[in-house]
Design goal:
heterodimer, A: 441 residues, alpha+beta, BirA Bifunctional Protein, domain 2, Rossmann fold, 3 domains, five-stranded mixed β-sheet, B: 218 residues
Chain lengths: 441, 218
Amino acid sequence: MKPARSLIPIGTATFGPNTARRVRILESQLLTLLSRWGYREIILPTFEYLDVLSVGLAPEVLEKCYKFADWTTGRILVLRPDITAQIARMVAMGMGGDGLPLRLSYRTTVFRYEPEHAGREREVFQVGVELIGTDDAYADAEVLISLIELLKEVGLPDFKISVGHVGFYNALLNRSGLSGDGQRKAEIAAARKDLPLLESLLLKERISRKKIQVLLEAVGRCGQADVLEWGRTIAGKDSALTIPLTRLSTVYDLLGTAGLQDHLLIDLGEFRGFNYYDGVVFDVFTSSFGSELGGGGRYNHLLGRFGRELPSTGFALDMDRVFASLDSAAFQNGDQGLPLLLVSTHKHYGVAFKLAQQLRSEGFQVIQETEGPGKIDLAKQARIRSKKMGIFKAIIVGAPRVSLGYVMVMTLGALSKQPPLAKVLCDELPSFLRGQLHGRL
Amino acid sequence: MSDTVTIALSKGTMLTATLELFRKAGYKGHNRNIDDRRLVWDCPEDGHTLLIVRPSDVPTYVEYGAADVGVVGKDVLLEQKPDVYEPLDLRMGACRLVVAVPKGKTFPNRLSSKLRVATKYPNITERHFNEQGIPVEIIKLYGSIELSPLVGLTEQIVDLVSTGRTLKAHNLVEQEVIAWSSARLIVNRASLKIKHAAITQLIERLKKVRPQKAEPSP
């Protein structure tokens, strides 16, 4: 006996017509909004050479990549686990054009081996942007503002963006006097806000009580301007701390000017994410989902690994998670697209085809069918077929006793056994349907 | 948005002590009768909803966001490595994860040099022996781990020890402590940001009333 095996790989999803449509509408909406900020969409290959792309990927990410052999060259190919590294590779090679800064957007999928756990997928649908070639606070703010505006526009309820700066906590750890190994362990503990572990690591290396207090408090602190204020008292005149803090404050103030500060939460201990982040970083959270919906940050040296130093920043949204967090009511407006059924006799196929084409050109969705075998009443066929396909408007062409130039329009409903029929002049059909379907089309 | 904080508590020996700690911290609604069989407990006066779940399920509830906060032993966290924040050691239910061997241990009479280790914690055990560079065959058991060396199933065990009496009764000795464990407060990553004020207050209050030193379960 064959063992019971799963028919589809773990971590993949199939979207039915309704879901697929909503996801695509959402993606298009996001990309259209981003285009108004000057971001232009690009499309990149699904797989790359591992040796080329791996320069931009952390060892932990590389371990989670799908890899396979390219039989023509003997080299190893990798399904992209991350789009930012790929875009960095592309831009560093000069394929992004000459103008700087570059504003690029994308909708794509990335692939990672993940245990089937906590909603992590293996094929992840993402929409995002990269702003390449500028290292000022305005660029950091622009990326954050566009992200917030985007999420507001698509109707994501009560979300917060947690903002931090990779440099701040790293500088704190650097000056603590921890060993290299201790520092790496402390970073991991801090990223998990595992304060008991962090404290024991620091105590083990005999770090002073005062320093320990600061390192623990920085991880626990998150809030608004008060956190920045606290950071300044800690930083004193140490430029390794004041530089990241000043950048963070400037970005925070710019978001204030834009009237969007309420969406921010400053977290000085937050520095998780891809290892190429080296500046202002952020994550999107909302109340209805247990982990981040997306995030991003500044990566000033990633492109350099591919041979062209260009300071950059960007973000990516995990579409599956955004979709799960949106109120489905938000899609009602976009829920158009109920198809019509157009049935005709064999004799009237030509007339019916013309009519169907005319309706299609005016934006209607039309499924055309011709009378079935045997002697069956055309109206009855329209009724049966419509019910089967879940269609609630049928157009009958060539029914007996209907004069030339006219069609019958049948409206199917749950209430009436005999659906009502209306005789409509062909030329008036589009406007008639529009009037009838108003609000449902 | 609901401002209620949902808290997953480990049922079993730690529950009474946990509820007492919450009461000490000023959460009056946490006076649950231990014999009450309900799994969901509303404490509107504190703005809390309590979920009573198995200890090993607490990280799952919190990681997925079904609960905002949880109370669970560090041993479970080390084994499962969930993606949650762990801001506070509640210093209750102190115990240690140890490698134990039979007194006057005998060497395996097998061709393979691999040691066999029985445990409820296969991940911790694997990490520990990997770090030491010792190849082992891990045998996952669900209880009565101390039995396995007695009947020759394994040469060693990795288990949670509080007083050490059970080990002694089975003629086993502690060879090495892998980790110290006690109850931890864990927080969902999104919840800490979205319900920041309420959760920070909870952490601060518990911090004030937790024991000065890690205490074993009563």
